[in-house]
Amino acid sequence: MIAGCSTGPAPKLATVKPVAPASNEVPYHWTVGNAPQAHKDMVAEFGKLGLKPGEYVWASAAPAEGDPRIVVDLLTQMTYVYRGEKLLGASSMSSAKTGHITPYGYWTILEKRPFYRSKKYDNAPMPFMQRIDDYGIAFHGGVNPGYPASHGCMRLPMKFAEKLYGVTKIGTKVVIEG
To answer: Which of 20, 38, 90, 128 gives 161 a disulfide partner, CB atoms 3.0 to 4.6 angstroms apart?
Structure first.
C-alpha cells in the first residue's frame, strides 16, 4: 500500500495570485488632482493629516500677490483656499446630504453677500455667502458636523467662512472634486 501512494498522481496545489499592494490613493469619483494636492499642501504647510468637524487652519502670513482659488474635496469633506500657489487655509465642511447635490466641476464665485437668507429653505441664514451657480449653491458659514448634511451648499465653520469671504472676489475660481 505504501508503494501505491508513491505512484499516484501528484497532489494539485492551489495557485494563489499575489495580492496587489494596498494603494494610499483615495477613490475619487472625479478629480483632476487638485484635491489630493491640496491635502498634501495642508500636511506640508500646517503639519495636519486631517481636521475635526468645525476645525480649520489659517496661515499666519499670506502673499500680497496672486489670485485666490478654492479647492473643495467632497470625499474628505474639506475646503482649501489658495492665493497663487500658497495654501492660505483649510477647513472641514459639510456638503450635500443624500437626496441633494453639491456639483463636481469648475465654478466661479458669482455673488458675495456678508449676510443672506435662503430663498428656498425657510429663510435660513447664510452668513458670508458666496454663490457659485444660478440655483443657489454657495459657500457660507453654518453647522459643520463634518459629514454631508446640507441641501447642496458647502457649509463652513463661521470664522473660516469669514476669512474666506475676505480673500475671495467675484470671479474667484473654484474646483469641486470628490
So the answer is: 128
User: What does the DSSP 8-state code read for residue 141?
Assistant: E
pLDDT < 50: residue spans in the chain: 1, 4, 13-16, 19-21
List, edge to edge, every strand of the sheet that includes 154-156. Answer: 111-113, 129-131, 138-141, 154-156
Paired with 156 in beta bridges are 141
Rounded to 5 degrees, what are φ and ψ at 87? -75, 120
pTM for the model stands at 0.84
Integer Cα distance of 152 and 29 in angstroms: 17
Give the count of beta carbons closer than 10 Å to the beta carbon of residue 102.
21
Average pLDDT, the chain: 89
